[in-house]
Amino acid sequence: MLPSLPRPARRMARRLIAATTRPWISRARLAEDLRLLGVRRGGILLVHSSLSALGYLPGGPSAVLGALEDAIGPEGTLVLPTHTWKQANRGSREFDVAGTPSTVGILSETFRRQPGVLRSAHPTHSVAARGPLAAELIRAHEYADTPCGDGTPYCRLFEREGQILLLGVELRRNTCFHAVEALAGVPYLMCDTPEEFRIRDVSGVERSLTIRMHAPARKSRFNEMESLLTETGSLRKGRTGGSISLLLEGRRFRDTMLEQLAANPLFVLAAPGPAQEPPANVPAGI
After folding, report:
1. Angle at CA 119, nearest 5°, toward 113 and 124?
2. Domain boundaries, the chain
3. What tens digit of pLDDT does each residue of 201-216 get?
4. Which of 112, 123, 143, 202 could form a disulfide with 128, with the two C-beta atoms 3.0–4.6 Å apart?
5. pLDDT of 58-87, one tens digit each?
6. pTM above 0.85, yes or no
7. SUPFAM superfamilies annotated for this entry (predicted)?
8. Are strands 77-81 and 44-49 parallel, antiparallel or unpaired?
9. Alpha-carbon span 236 to 245, nearest angstrom
């Protein structure tokens, strides 16, 4: 903490501290680590990330994004969540595709602002994408019945055998758990009453849409799925810079989880008990 310094000075001080205390990694090294982990050239890659977990990379978020696109190549499509469910859970019912910032990390917000990036128009679980399949992935996201289920970028990734990279973050940060919950029709995922949102698209055109939101979070055991997903060939684990990252094969992940949820719709929830009851107005968090 550097409370006595002006904000720009504090920002510079944090950068200097990071540069001297965290392991250094280059863009080229990170791209190579991603390839060794199994990131496919020419594929779709959805990334959840912790920038600080990677170490110190000169160039910051832009260099990390560059390494991700180096790994998938120009034929690949990079996708990052640009979620705004935090604002929605605080009562906001307006969403501007071009102007509403992502609330799920600096990497996603940096990506959202870059040239050539498209963003879906869903007011709680939008994604940003760049690459040959970007327009197809984000198409009509706001009209899907659920934020992450059928007709959303998450399920289109499954269908096209995309991959999910958890870059320095735990398995519980994987939004695609909500996609498989939606596909399985679990009884706890969605609110009963839809909400009306005002959405402004990239052209500045506004329209009102009725959107179904996720219900308050139930305590999950997503992290406990690691062994199952590893055993079924859905997940690989390896070092990326200064962090340990997880790489999921989207379709295999979907099929593995749907098999378990078909047998037990509560499979990913923590054991019943008082701790499982969610406090009011707590979002799902991914």
Report:
1. 110
2. 24-276
3. 999 999 999 999 999 9
4. 112
5. 999 999 999 999 999 999 999 999 999 999
6. yes
7. TTHA0583/YokD-like
8. parallel
9. 8
